[in-house]
Amino acid sequence: MAESDNDRSASLLDALAACRAKIAAFIRRRTAVREEADDILQEITLQLINVEQPVENVAAWLFRAARNEMTDRARKKREWLFSDDPDGDDMDENLQQVLFGVAQTPEDARLNALFWDELDSALADLPAAQREVFIKTELEDCSYKQLAAEMDLPVQTLLSRKHKAVRYLRARLAALYDEIMLP
Q: Please, are residues 98 and 59 in contact by the beta-carbon 8 Å criterion?
């Protein structure tokens, strides 16, 4: 039986090798980052090896698996950290240190206190469900999976609530950010 599994795996890998260049090009055309394309190719290769039903047309199966994997990755929301810059740039390291680190100067302590007071006020204005998800995932470092089990909700619902909370908080705290960042 183990020999037939080895033969099956070998024939699947031979079929993969025959169409690897085409499937890799297909994935790369549809992804922005080469590393992500390589990850998708590796993931579908692993799926092919672990598939339990016989695969008659390996090339068609690979293209379908690649499309599905790309769709799944596109649907998964990137975890929005509150500390991420909304423009996609990294937040100034000095500002991160002032807001989230130990205050080194009285000015840092004042800015830190001001930020946390404003954040507390903004959090109080959020709907309870959004506030709870934001606090647990950002401030209490709870995973979505743990929180989903605790609240008996799908992870996607939690992601949606957090996304709405982050959008609101960014808009609400934008003036404070601008005030702090102005020279």
A: no
User: Is 82 inside any structural domain?
Assistant: no
Tokens of 17: 């090798």
Give the closest residue to 162 by CA, choosing from 143, 179, 178: 143
Distance CA 83, CA 99 (A): 10
Helix, coil or strand: residue 101? coil
| Cβ contacts of 157 within 8 Å, gap of 6 or more | 148
Q: Are 63 and 149 in contact (CB under 8 A)?
A: no
67 and 106 housed in the same domain: no
Alpha-carbon gap, residue 21 to 161, rounded angstroms = 41
Question: Domain holding 155: CATH number?
Answer: 1.10.10.10
Distance CA 159, CA 78 (A): 9
**Residue 13: pLDDT band with limits 50, 70, 90:** confident
Of 114, 126, 137, give the one whose Cα is nearest residue 167: 126
Q: Tell me if 36 sits within 8 A of 69, measured CB to CB.
A: no
Residue 85, in any domain of the structure: no
* CA 115/CA 19 separation, integer angstroms: 55
Question: Is the pTM value of this prediction over 0.85?
Answer: no
